[in-house]
Write the structure tokens for this entry.
Amino acid sequence: MSDALQIRPLTDADRPRWDAYVQAHGDGTFFHLSGWKPVVEAVYGHPMHYFVAERAGAVVGVLPLGEVRHLLFGHALISVPFCVYGGVLADDDGVRVVLEQHAMELAQRLGVDHLEMRNQQQRRLDWPTKDLYFTFRRTLDPDPEANLAAIPRKQRAMVRKGIKAGLIGELDAGVDRFYLAYSESVRNLGTPVFPKAWFAALRREFGNACDVVSVTHQGRLVASVMNFYFRDQVLPYYGGGTAAARDLAGNDFLYWDVMRRAAERGIRVFDYGRSKKDTGSFSFKKHWGFEPEPLHYEYYLVKARDVPDLNPSNPKYRLFIQAWQRLPLGMSRVLGPWLARGLA
């Protein structure tokens, strides 16, 4: 068997080996798993280009890419679209460089505006980047009470407010209640909503590695979140609250309930996910005692002259956001998915 490095497209038969490689790799994340490929293709129709690097029959690297084309937001090749982490996983820098070169050549052939690698660590000093995104992670104690005590005093008081109000956290079998809370919340933020089919597909694809926790008050929905599980980590990824959440400290109680459940099942890392610098969610996570860690989103420009700036803080989107916040909720659920398919 040849020892030469071979790069080839992922097949369905390769998926167990791909996922085993991701699970074993020190830099592997939930977003490197092969399941994102069929979900994105089925729900949005974006072509996904996944490549396996092999040597002597063994997997030595993986490259997950998604091609996103939208009338308003342009044409990009992203690792990985709709995900916060991505980039190449490889046994060594030699394999990584070959896979990155493969991605660059594909970007040129497709004629995209840019190639985007969503790395947790800096990989390419020669590529432009942007100082915008941060992630928040913390180790959990096996004792839920110790985790509660670790939350700074003011935020801990909000969790206790929710407990005192009689909020109840429940595991949901489906996505219906989650979608009601999530879609209301993102409309209020001025952000287009993803379709309900997206969340249903994620639950089907990832099975026990994906759940939904909803919070109720006297039988009424208050907040809900979709969580992903990877190795010893929990990632509350999509979430939102109804109008009642603020007065009842519903979001604080929600994330505490996810944290409590995770600690009890042996999860040791709480990944609060990505936030943009100096936004409300960035401050919210810092108030929980999480320290921001910079993410290294690196760009190879093809047709574009500058890195993309699809950012709600960009002044040119201010009027759109204000108009979207006033949109009737039902209409936002109809119009949002077309826009959101380009917000990868």
Summary: The radius of gyration is 20 Å.
